[in-house]
Structure formats: structure tokens, C-alpha cells
Amino acid sequence: MTGLALTAAASLRAPVSTEAFDEDLAVSFFRDLLGPFGTKPDEERLRAGTRVQHRQLAETLAAADGIRGSRPQLVVVAHALPDLVPFTAVAPLLTERLGGAATCFAISEQGLAAPFTALRVATAYHRSARADEVLLAVLEQTTVPQPFPLVDENPLIDSGVVLTLSATDAGALALDRAGFSASVADALAGYDADGRTLVVLGSWVDAPVPGGYAVHRAEPGGYCTGVWLELAENWQDWHRKYRTVVLCDTDPRDGRTCAAVFTAR
Predict the structure, then answer these.
(1) Where does the pLDDT of residue 9 fall: very low under 50, low under 70, confident under 90, or very high at 90 and above?
(2) pLDDT, position 239
(3) Secondary structure of 44-85 as H, E, C letters
(4) How many domains does the chain have?
(5) Which of 125, 143, 167 is the last residue of a domain?
(6) On the chain, which terminus has fewer CB atoms closer than 10 Å, C or N?
(7) Residue 1 scores a pLDDT above 70
(8) Are residues 24 and 153 in the same domain?
């Protein structure tokens, strides 16, 4: 069976909020959510935030060139930071926008590992003949109701990525594997250091890369989205220039490294 390969992508960085935001409703929701834990929302923080919601990110990306014609059998939304207000189930929303026939769900509570896990799930669905086209959305919004060091101490931006992976034999970057890795060096084991292997590092990675590999570092601003923004914006060029593309990121909250490997067909 032909494996999954990246065939289309779209990205979005720092959009301006276009969604109506009911401050009173949001504050009421967070009071109910946080009250049992003896705390309350910071109303001034909510008002001062960018207030870009997952729904806006998802709908904008679903309408992008190369994506709006997708008809996936599986839609997976991956995120590390929560939605501003979780009043819209975004995976079903994307499914409705893209044909309405997909199995859909979200993966969260894994930090920046969520998209890597989503790719493993996508591979399993394809291998079991349940999905020949998969849409992965990686979404990040930065308005939170309480102090949160990751957001407060880093210049994060609202951002989002969608990737379409399809069963194809040529003209794409084929997904080889994805998941946790002991280190960046471990992720590169077995891939030649001959200049034709590109290592895409998240902005959080501070481990050295062995000599001989081409290196591209993600711009600061994305926690969960960092390396995926770079992939979405550069994959066609990388497909022409490199034999192997290895995405590596290290979560600053727990130190775990993840890797995803794509090879040019």
C-alpha cells in the first residue's frame, strides 16, 4: 500500500481577529471553569489579548488555495494551548467545510508533541485502509485567562497550519515516521550527512546538529506550530532540493524531543 505524502499546505501567521467576541460570556465561562479551583480569570488580560480563536484560524486555512478542494477521510486538529473559548468544535467544522465525510477529532494535552502524534495516528488510519487523504490542522492562539509563563515570557503569535497528506507515488514529500526521539542526533541516525538531508529545527532546540547536514531553524513565535509553519511555507522548494527533510523540536516545558521524517519521491 502506498504511504501518505504531503501534497498541499497552507499557513497563517499573526492574523487580526475577525470573530465577534462576547466578553461577558467569556468571563462568565472562565469564572465557572476556574472557580472550583479557587481562582478567577484575569479580565484585563482577556480584553488586552489578540483574541484570535481556533475557529477563525481553521476557516481561513480551509479556504486557502490547495486546501479548499480537499476531501479528506480523516481530519485531525492538533493544539498545545487551549482555544480562547471552546464553544466551537473545530474538527467537525473543518470536516463540514471539506466535504463532510471525514472521521474527525482533536489531539491536545501533549504540548508540541501533538502534531507528531497526529501524524502517527494518520499513518495508522491509512495502513488500515481507513483514510487515503488526511488533513492535519495545527492551531495556536495566545490569549489565555490567567498568567502562563510560556505565553508571558515568549513572543508567541497566533498561527495555524493545515497539511494535506494523500496516498501518492510521486511529486511529494512522503512521510516516513513521526514521534518521540531521544535527541536530535538520534532522529538523524540512518540519514546521510551529505548535504541532501535538511534538518528543520524548532526555535526551542538548543542541541547541536552533527556536521554535514543542511539546517533550517524556525522563526520564534510558534510553540506548537513552529516547525510546521516552516514546512507549510517551504515544502515545495525543499522537495526539489533535498532527499530527506527531518523536523525536530524540543518542548521547553518538559525537554522531550519529537521528530518527523519526510523523503522526496
Answers:
(1) very high
(2) 95
(3) HHHHHCCCCCHHHHHHHHHCCCCCCCCCCCEEEEECCCCCCC
(4) 2
(5) 167
(6) N
(7) no
(8) yes
Triad 39, 41, 45: Cα angle to 5°: 140
| Whole-Å CA distances, 210 to 193, 233, 252 | 8, 25, 21
Mean pLDDT of 170-188: 92
Structural domain boundaries, residue 208: 173-264
Burial of 203 (0-12, 13-18, 19+ CB in 10 A): buried
Residue 137 C-alpha cell reads as 490542522
Residue partners of 175: CB distance under 8 A and separation at least 6: 3, 4, 5, 6, 119, 122, 123, 165, 260, 261, 262
pTM of the model as a whole: 0.95
Residue carrying C-alpha cell 539546517: 215
Residue 101 pLDDT exceeds 90: yes
pLDDT-based confidence at residue 22 (cuts at 50, 70, 90): confident
> In this predicted model, what pLDDT tens digit does every residue of 205-261 receive, in sequence order?
998 999 999 999 999 999 999 999 999 999 999 999 999 999 999 999 999 999 999
Between CA 165 and CA 264 the distance in angstroms is 14
Answer yes or no: do 246 and 220 share one domain. Answer: yes
Q: Are residues 143 and 191 in the same domain?
A: no
